[in-house]
Amino acid sequence: MAPEERADAARLLRGFERRFLAARALRSFPWQSLEEKLRDSSGSELLLDILQKTVKHPLCVKHPPSVNYIRSFLSELIRKHEAAHTEPSDELYQALAEVLTAEEPTHCHRSYLLPSGDSVTLCESTAIVSHGTTGLVTWNAALYLAEWAMENPEVFTHRTALELGSGAGLTGLAICKSCRPSAYIFSDCHSRVLEQLRGNVLLNGFSLAPGTDARAQHPGPRTTEAERPQVTVARLDWDTVTAPQLAAFQPDVVLAADVLYCPETVLSLVGVLRKLSTCQKDQRAPDAYIAFTIRNPETCQLLTTELGRAGIPWEEVPRHDQKLFPYEEHSEMAILKLML
């Protein structure tokens, strides 16, 4: 195989690997490029390479996506193979047979590969809305904010970060693994989200600081374990938390992703940001970054209007070029930097 062909094959394998481990929609996979490759005599070998990078990947074996997802992926892979080759692939059929009778659990895993070679693996609900909340799955703006953070690690290095509405924990875990914060406080208010969040922190090799269920608790002195941040999971209700409770966290940076679901949520968010603006550390308020997918322009307009009423200046962060994670290509996302 020529060097250019090897590079093309490697890109194709990487595309399948990243999308499959993150359990992205099958329509987002590079099927057309695969069909073109399958017309070559090396097509069967390529399919086996894809199998090793997806269903047989060590991350998938240990922390698999949903059974239905694996089943649908293998069925599509077999269809592509049968359309190009007359000889059946025993390996593909065997892999499918292994999941045909498996039961579908209520939770699945998604894994996101980091540039360092490390990964973030999350246990998530198989339903978008579960137990009355959308916080049990990862949304696109969390991926977008994590990408931006890894391009701008100096924002977090040796600093204490407080995340509002952490959900499944993708953004914070990526920052903890890539940006060397001294401490990171994940927060949410839904009991089931907090339970899953604690599990995801442990799943990714971090230990939890004592008293992680406190409504607001300073993360305490930094541990010396190989520059690892001290991680806290806190229950934080935006409507009832007080400014002194927020100040106890002593945050240098505040961030949130995909928390603009309705006007009521926007008002609560601005309310807690106003309280955070009074939290002085070293004679300055924390930096704040809010990432969101632009689903409803009126909701975004409400956010900027309410920030103006609260006297919180803001500016839009320039779009970053490096796309590290697979998410919807046509999603319009933005990050606002707030001057608290």
UniProtKB/TrEMBL annotation:
Matching entries from SUPFAM superfamilies are given as:
S-adenosyl-L-methionine-dependent methyltransferases
Name the domain of life this protein comes from.
Eukaryota
The FAM86 N-terminal domain extends over: 11-99
Work out whether the entry's keyword set contains Methyltransferase.
yes
Which Pfam family, an example, fits this chain? Methyltransf_16
**What keywords would UniProt list here?**
Methyltransferase, S-adenosyl-L-methionine, Transferase
Q: Which family does this protein fall into?
A: Belongs to the class I-like SAM-binding methyltransferase superfamily. EEF2KMT family.
Q: What is this protein called?
A: Protein-lysine N-methyltransferase EEF2KMT
Gene coding for it:
EEF2KMT
